[in-house]
Amino acid sequence: MAFTVEDFQDLLELLRAHPEWRRRLWELLASEELLRLPAEVKAFREEFEAFRDQTFEAFRQETERRFQRVEEQIAALAEAQRRTEEQIRQLVEVIRQLTERVDRLEQRAARLERRTEDHARDLGKLKKYSMENRYRERSVKVFRGLLRGAKPVPDEWVDQVLEEAVAAGRITEGEADDAAQADLVVEGFHRREGRKIYLVVEISDLGDTEDVKRAVKRAAIFARAFQAEVWPVVGAEELTDLARKAARDLRVWWVRDGRAFPPREIPEEAEGAGGTGESFRPEH
C-alpha cells in the first residue's frame, strides 16, 4: 500500500501529540555528530561565558591597577608641587628679607656717603681757610715770583672801590657782587718794570677749570673797577690736567708753595710740575 500525503499529515499529527515519538524519530534520522551538537554547543557556550568572565575580570583588575598607578603618580606630582610651592614661598621670603637688608645697607651707605661728603667739604673749607690765611700772612713770600712788595688789599678798600666803580658806571652791580667773592686781592710792583700790578687770586686745594675761569672773569672786572693792570691767578696745591690747559690758554698764573708758574710754563701733567719755579719772564 502506497504512503500518501494524507498518511504524512496523520504522522505529523501523531508526532505533535506524542513528543517521545518525535525524539525517537530524531534519533533514527539524525547522525551521531548531529546528536552531539546540542551538548557541544552548550559546552562551548559555557566555556565561552567562563572565558568571557575571566577576561573581563582580568581587564577590570588591570584597569584598576593602571588607575591606581595614575592616582599614585598624580598624588606624587601634587606633593612635589606642594613642596615646590613651599620652597618658592620660602625663597620669596628670603628675597624679601635680603631686599630689606639691602635697602637698610643702602640707606646706611647713603648716610655714610653724606657724612663723608660733609667731612670732605668741611675739610676742604678748612684747607682753603688755612691757605687763604697763609697767602695773606705771607704775601711777600708767596707772591714774590710775580711782584715786588706784594701785600693783600684790605677787604674794606676793595668794597669801596667796587662801589665807586658801580656808581661811575664802569661795572654793574652784579659784576661788583661777583668780584667781591674773590678769595684774595694782592697789590705790588712789576719785578722788572716797577709798575703797579694787582692780582686776583682764586684759592683751592685742587684747582679746576672753574677756578681758572673765575680768576679770568673777576680779574677783568677788577681791571675796569681799579682802572689798573690786573693779573688772574690760581693759588692751589695742585691743578687738574684740564685746569692746567685752561690756565695756559687763558693766560692765568699758578702759584703753589711760594712758586710762581707763568701761563706758558705750567706743566701739562702733574709729573712735570716741579721743573719750573720762580725763574721766569713775565707774560703780562
How many structural domains does the protein architecture include? 2
Describe the main β-sheet briefly.
6 strands, mixed
SSE string? HHHHEHHEEHEHEE
Globally, the shape reads rod-shaped
How many helices? The count is 8
Strand content: 5-15%
Query: Measured on Cα atoms, how large is the radius of gyration?
Result: 60 Å
Overall number of strands: 6
Helical content (DSSP H or I, runs of 4+): 55-70%
* Oligomeric assembly: single chain
| Straight-line distance between termini | 176 Å
Write out the strand line-up for the largest beta sheet, numbering strands in chain order: 1-2-3-4-5-6
Overall SS class: alpha/beta
Return residue spans where pLDDT drops below 50 for at least 5 consecutive residues. 272-284
Could you report the average pLDDT, rounded to the nearest whole number? 81
Please characterize this protein's 3D structure.
This protein is α/β, with parallel strands linked by helices. 64% of the residues lie in helices and 15% in strands. It is built from 8 helices and 6 strands, in the order H-H-H-H-E-H-H-E-E-H-E-H-E-E. The termini are far apart.
